[in-house]
Design goal:
The chain is α/β, with parallel strands linked by helices. The protein folds into 2 domains: about 140 residues, Rossmann fold (3-Layer(aba) Sandwich); about 160 residues, 2-Layer Sandwich (Dihydrodipicolinate Reductase, domain 2). The protein is about 30% helix and about 25% strand. The chain has a 6-stranded parallel beta sheet with strand order 5-2-1-6-7-8, sandwiched between helices. Strands 12-9-13-16-15-14 form a 6-stranded mixed beta sheet. Helix 1 crosses helix 8, helix 3 packs across helix 5 and helix 3 packs across helix 8. The two termini are about 15 Å apart.
Length: about 350
């Protein structure tokens, strides 16, 4: 069991991967939400160590993540990739910090809670390894929506197709799409009639061009012709909702959108629930905004998960179809991590 002392009201905080896309968003959110920290230290690879980042008008020098001494830190947010997290998170936790990790490294570990702040905060009562995992940014969007529906009618099966923004692949994803859009430029209309190969941008990062396209093979196949993203969606949904046998089939698609992950969800339920009742539940659920036409531009730069197009799915006995969108850099990653920290500091968990 977790034997570490309660967190102080004003913890000393660290960010591993501070110079990356997630790190920048983390800094912004800690400042926006006035997270009650007593000190802040920033860490990155040797390549970025020595640079300075601004927080609340002060300049903080970035430390080398591998050689740093983590003693004295109470909470450390990790977003530096799975291999870095596997190597360093146990060391940081052993030094006394609670690690909140944004990579996929610990999500399937049965001794590491996988937490969405609005959905299963009670999982934070037991942190055996001193590590808490943040779900994949696509899974994150669905969880606040599916939780109240499950409580009301019981989830029986999920089928989901995702429309994932390129920023989910980090700065490199944004750079690839920007470069490819610039390559096509104002000749994009020609693609409607079939363009010569010189107009098409070269495939980068993904197997086919991203600009003006959709990519239904999002990284490598890993299990039964499903990709890693699709397996994450299945396994993480089961763990967060506490439904280890829930049938989940996902198709994860990367689309030429910079920010905002979307999901088209068909949920089969154990008991009947009307679309009207589902909407009423969702309107009162934490972290959710009901929208007539939820879309990535609406969600970009905002904290809530947006949901709409809620309607009956007539192909199953008790079915609902709905569309969900969130800002994958905020709620999909950095915001939920900060919220985990906030819950951990709350009176209920600090006692």
């Amino acid at each position: 069991m977790n034997t570490r002392c309660p967190l102080p009201a004003q913890p000393a905080v660290g960010i591993v991967g501070a110079t990356g896309l997630f790190g920048a968003m983390m800094l912004r959110l800690l400042e926006e939400r006035q997270f009650p920290l007593s000190a802040l230290r920033l860490f990155a690879s040797a390549r970025s160590a020595g640079t300075a980042l601004s927080f609340k008008g002060e300049s903080i020098v970035v430390e080398d993540v591998t050689s740093a001494d983590y003693a004295g830190l109470d909470i450390v947010f990790f977003s530096a990739g799975g291999s870095t997290s596997k190597a360093l998170a146990p060391r940081v936790a052993a030094a006394g910090a609670v690690v909140i990790d944004n990579s996929s490294a610990w999500r399937s570990d049965p001794e590491v809670p996988l937490v969405v702040a609005e959905v299963n905060p009670d999982a934070l009562r037991l942190i055996p390894k001193g590590i808490v995992a943040n779900p994949n940014c696509t899974t994150m969007a669905a969880m606040p929506v599916l939780k109240p529906l499950h409580e009301a009618a019981g989830l029986k099966r999920l089928v989901a197709s995702t429309y994932q923004a390129v920023s989910g692949a980090g700065v490199q994803g944004i750079d690839v799409l920007s470069r490819q859009l610039a390559h096509v430029g104002d000749r994009a209309g020609e693609l409607a009639y079939g363009a010569d190969e010189a107009l098409l941008p070269a495939a980068e990062k993904w197997g086919v061009p991203m600009a003006h396209n959709v990519v239904p093979l999002n990284y490598e196949l890993v299990e039964d012709d499903y990709t890693e993203e699709e397996i994450k969606l299945r396994d993480e949904t089961r763990k967060v909702l506490g439904l280890p046998d829930l049938p989940v089939s996902g198709t994860c698609v990367r689309v030429p959108v910079f920010t905002g992950h979307s999901l088209s969800i068909n949920a089969e339920l154990e008991r009947p629930i009307s679309a009207r009742k589902a909407l009423a539940l969702l309107k009162n659920a934490p972290g959710i905004v009901v929208s007539e036409v939820p879309n990535p531009l609406e969600a970009a730069g905002r904290d809530p998960v947006y949901v709409g197009r809620v309607r009956a799915d007539p192909t199953v006995e008790h079915g609902l179809a709905l569309f969900v969108v969130d800002d994958n850099l905020r709620k999909g990653a950095a915001l939920n991590a900060v919220q985990i920290g906030e819950v951990s500091l709350s009176r209920e968990f600090a006692s």
